[in-house]
Design goal:
Blueprint lengths: L2 H8 L8 E9 L3 E2 L2 E2 L10 H12 L3 E4 L5 H13 L2 E3 L5 E3 L4 E9 L5 E6 L2 H11 L17 H10 L3 E4 L9 H5 L3 H5 L8 E3 L6 H4 L9 E3 L14 E6 L4 H8 L6 E7 L11 E2 L4 E2 L21 H8 L14 E3 L11 H10 L3 H6 L3 H8 L1 H11 L5 E2 L8 E2 L7
Parallel strand pairs: 1-4, 4-7, 10-11, 13-16
Antiparallel strand pairs: 1-12, 2-3, 5-6, 6-7, 7-8, 8-9, 12-13, 14-15, 17-18
Length: 409
């Protein structure tokens, strides 16, 4: 019996002790040790800030830091462990003083140009990861480096390090495995497709879209923020049923074992994603004609950026989604800061009264919201909960927008 099997067998099968946790498992670090980590991220997006400010303000119980393989970030994790601000758990993961669980992860770009995430359980496994990629990347300090290793190499590495392998933003044209590499994973990976158990949907896709592909039926879907700034932490999140907060419980949850499972995905409507529909750089226009669009109907340009929706229409096996029985619901949510009428002043007023953003979005009575921010804001939040907000589709790197006159229809 290997280490993973032994730890899994030690976990309780009794589901009465399980609890529900909110998690965003794809968050970047802008800077660590005073130096840049994710070049495109805000320098104010830092490890300590995420754990002790952003996560509690959003209402997250668990955060996945996908730049943990950076030597700068791992050094900060070790410093926080030495100071007692983090404690490494016997069953994996790192718990903070405020109860937030840190899951360490490494996002890299494979030789094929695809982004993958490997969630790792311990500090030692982070070091082992770093030892493997040290001679295979240009700069060990930076995030999401292109590594001289194939997708299959990285799948095997993740397995050897007791990790959890996940394709990042799987459907986007920018580095997504389905968006830019293959129509079918089975055609590329063969029998090794059995190792693929987790897919990240990305901001431009949802469960309905992903479940038009037959081979995704055995995968657990994650909806994560891919945050590059503090305000975007938790813009997409997941509700997980787990026991204790630790890495092995997360492993069971993503494998749908022993009563652990993803209860719900919460994310922006795919139309709000910046790669949802095809985009013509020549016309500088998002194309909203019937998908799939591979040729600009306005200028005839064939060098368009194919949208996620258009791409899925091309590669799908079914004309409508076929959800497996265990597939959790997907709820459309929009960060408070992006809702019409909620500026910084109103946002801070709401968060000064209510515990956190997720609590406000999901649970607070509309009457109580109205008393603090007025009836119009309460009605907008109501319409978001019910999926009634009008949206202008995004594409070509431009986010979609909530229509200002969409509420209260």
């Amino acid at each position: 019996m290997n280490t993973i099997e032994r730890l899994n067998n030690e976990l309780e099968y009794d589901t009465k002790s399980l609890t529900s946790l909110f998690a965003d498992l794809h968050i970047h670090i802008g800077s660590a040790k005073g130096k840049a980590v994710k070049i495109t991220a805000s320098r104010q997006l830092q490890l300590r800030t995420i754990i002790y400010h952003d996560a509690p303000r959003k209402g997250l119980d668990m955060v996945g830091i996908v730049d943990s393989g950076s030597t700068l970030v791992s050094a900060e994790i070790e410093e926080m462990l030495a100071d007692g601000d983090l404690v490494e758990l016997e069953k994996g993961g790192f718990i903070a003083r405020n109860g937030v669980l840190l899951i360490s992860a490494c996002e890299v770009e494979s030789r094929e140009g695809v982004h993958i995430i490997s969630y790792l359980p311990t500090m030692q496994r982070i070091r082992d990861w770093q030892a493997y990629i040290k001679s295979r990347v240009h700069n060990t300090r930076l995030s999401t480096q292109k590594v001289d290793a194939s997708i299959l190499d990285l799948i095997m590495l993740s397995s050897q390090l007791d990790g959890i392998f996940c394709f990042a933003h799987a459907f986007t044209p920018h580095k997504g495995v389905y968006g830019m590499w293959t129509d079918k994973l089975a055609s590329k990976l063969g029998e090794d497709i059995r190792h693929i158990k987790v897919l990240e949907l990305g901001l431009s896709a949802d469960t309905d879209m992903a479940d038009m592909l037959e081979e995704t039926r055995g995968c657990t879907f994650l909806s994560n923020s891919d945050a590059h700034s503090s305000p975007n932490v938790g813009r997409e999140y997941n509700l997980l049923r787990m026991g204790e907060k630790n890495f092995q419980e997360l492993r069971l949850c993503l494998a749908n074992k022993n009563g652990r499972r993803v209860l719900a995905n919460y994310g922006m409507h795919p139309s709000l994603g910046k790669y949802h529909r095809s985009f013509c750089p020549g016309c500088d226009k998002i194309i909203t004609d019937e998908p799939p669009i591979s040729l600009c109907p306005l200028c005839g340009n064939s060098k368009i950026v194919m949208g996620v929706f258009d791409r899925i229409v091309v590669i799908r096996d079914y004309d409508s989604p076929r959800h497996p029985n265990e597939r959790p619901p997907y709820y459309y949510r929009i960060p408070l800061k992006d809702l019409p009428g909620i500026g910084p002043k109103t946002y801070n007023k709401l968060l000064g009264v209510f515990p956190n953003e997720i609590e406000l979005i999901e649970k607070i009575l509309l009457e109580d919201i109205s008393m603090v921010a007025g009836g119009t804001i309460a009605a907008t939040i109501r319409d978001m909960r019910l999926g009634r907000l009008g949206i202008s589709a995004g594409g070509g790197g431009k986010y979609g927008k909530v229509k200002k006159d969409s509420s209260n229809q």
